[in-house]
């Protein structure tokens, strides 16, 4: 496996959005040998729990636990402490929870790290505006004025000032986030759709190649891989497209 392939595959986060461990494990088997990141979201975590996470870690995967915490600071602090103890590599909170809540996540993580030196520091990122949110939903339903890009950058600045490592946003906003928070501030971008694939409920989408071109550090891909007739081929095709950019 050449280094370029390995590096690019490590920037692909596969969303294991399945109702149980059996179905998720079947996909993991199909992707065996591809050194991608794996994402466990609420559907799988609420069904299969920490055991599935540990199983992925035992198989050598980097794991993003996507539970999008959004609660009072004290509760998020406790949640972050428990999540860090699971040994995950990345987890997220909602930037809409505010600075104090994001700082509490950081504190919770630090408490876990201090109590167990065998743990490594996970990346903590803040969800800005969901990639399913359109301009009109933002303005008319959520009640935030102005354009979506400004709203995302405002949240990114808030996350950076709270000491978090990066944000979840659509790849469209990555250049502006980079300008505001610096190129080292991590951008994780879902809403990825290879040319010709179904958008589903995603609104702010780009192709894998376009997202890398915009400067995304990681891309998150679910259904274009999990619903493909040949998921392994779909994942390989995405990595190839990512490699062709740089
Ligand atoms: O935090 C996330 O991962 C996330 C944030 C966001 O704004 N949009 C978004 O789609 N996601 C997640 O990324 C994945 C995208 O899946 P697909 O739309 O199937 O590719 C899902 O697991 C979502 O929960």
Automatic annotation (TrEMBL):
InterPro entries: Aldolase_TIM, OMPdecase, OMPdecase_AS, OMPdecase_bac, OMPdeCOase_dom, RibuloseP-bd_barrel. It holds the Pfam family OMPdecase. GO terms for molecular function: orotidine-5'-phosphate decarboxylase activity. It catalyses: orotidine 5'-phosphate + H(+) = UMP + CO2. SMART domains: OMPdecase. GO terms for biological process: 'de novo' pyrimidine nucleobase biosynthetic process; 'de novo' UMP biosynthetic process. Its EC number is 4.1.1.23. One of its GO terms (cellular component) is cytosol. Substrate binds at residues 17, 39, 66-75, 131, 193, 202, 222-223. Keywords: Decarboxylase, Lyase, Pyrimidine biosynthesis. Pathway: Pyrimidine metabolism; UMP biosynthesis via de novo pathway; UMP from orotate: step 2/2. Transmembrane segments: none annotated. Catalyzes the decarboxylation of orotidine 5'-monophosphate (OMP) to uridine 5'-monophosphate (UMP). Belongs to the OMP decarboxylase family. Type 1 subfamily. NCBIfam families: PRK00230.1, pyrF. Homodimer. This is Orotidine 5'-phosphate decarboxylase. The lineage of its organism: Bacteria, Bacillati, Bacillota, Bacilli, Bacillales.
